[in-house]
Amino acid sequence: MRLRKERLIAGQVWDTVFTNRIVPYLGLFVGLLITYAAYSGWVSFRQQNQLRAAYQQQARQDWLSNPDKHPHRMAHYGHFVFRPKAPLSMFDGGMESFLGSTLFLEAHKQNSVNFSEAGFSTGLLRFGEISLAMILQLLLPLLIFFVGFSSVASERDNGTLKIVLSQGVSGQALLVGKSLGLIGVMSTLFIPVMLATVALWLIAQSGSVTLDEAIRLGLLIVAYFVYLTFFCLIAVLVSARSRSAKAALVTLIGLWLMLTLVLPRASQALGATLFAAPSKVAFFDKVGEDVHKEGNSHNPNDPHYKALKDSLLAAYRVDSVQQLPFNYSGFVMAEGEKISATIYNQHFDELLTIYDQQNEFSRAVAFLDPFMAIRNLSMALSGTDYANYLDFGQQAEQYRYDMAQKLNALQMKYVSNYKPGPGDPPITIDNKHWEEIPEFHYTKMSVRSVLANEPISLFALAFWAFVLLYLVHHQSKNLRVV
């Protein structure tokens, strides 16, 4: 029967692990962490989404309840939009706590997303939050190394490795069997984590699951199983190459520290140094400087808008703006909005280029560190990475621009060019027009778009699979018995 020897060896690994008196206590500890992570993830998701939905509804009601008012005043009154939490954010919080959730939209100005949890927390948040993803990314690989360091090295220490190989067990069968045994042990913790994720995921969506969300979850399960399998293979390979079990344990702990702590931090710091981004203050100062160079829509003597006025008067063959068939101030505001939005987008694209360079550098490290690959892919599929945050900001900016231009159009259509006298009432339009501004609805990225942003992570996982399988094959032919 095929793989009979491998299954016997895998069973021996299973028995050895679970007869260790420490393992049940470790399992209990991890089980408590899984329970806490699942509970805290669910509570955070439910509370945050309820709050954001309530505030979004309140912002809409506040907008519609405004009295009759000048359209430009409404443009400066502005509107709030809130970024909803994705269902899988319960599994992997990613950058959710650092990116903010609320954006104020107003005319002539692009604001940044505010009110992140990190802004209201202590510096301890930088060490990360306990989540189901964190348990799989950091803790479970360490446990795999702890139970797998002696898988082959102890056989060499006890002198039984020579006996096993002399009885017809090939080096490849031995390493494959040891790896399968560790994968089985790993699955006893991996499966409960994913079952908890699936249960919470279904509850969050009230059982109404879309194909896109199902694909995301399926890819997450496969990706994490592959990632943890890598650590099972690494544990067996290091154990097979080490002269003693003690040396294997020291090597594996060093590898864990390097892969999960040192390399990720170092790559981020180096990327930020190589591709330095301007500060928030410097960015907005540069935008404001270029907008003023192009023209100030609130300054009637500005050269750009003076030339614009002269061209309009000539085109309509009138002597003053009061004779134009539309409100001139509204036209000027629309032109100013177009100019400021264009300049902002140009500078923002340049900033995004720098951030993309930083992120691509960090992603490239995944070919040296599988932790980087699974972390980036996990956040992307969970909807908690930078790309999802950026997508929300871009949709909100488009909504802001459309809102401002719609109000400018209302001003051009309904507001007279003649200014009211000292005793005249202020110029307003009926508040029924506020309903013409549609409510903001965020459309989340499709899983296809998510995967298009993470080709390096996918290739890195494939690269690691190829390298580790090759190393297992190579090591099986060069297995030392002493």
UniProtKB/TrEMBL annotation:
Top-level lineage group: Bacteria
Cross-referenced InterPro entries: DUF3526 (IPR021913)
Claim: NADP is one of the keywords in the record: no
Positions of transmembrane segments: 22-42, 130-152, 180-203, 215-238, 244-263, 450-472
Protein keywords: Membrane, Transmembrane, Transmembrane helix
UniProt-recorded name of the protein: DUF3526 domain-containing protein
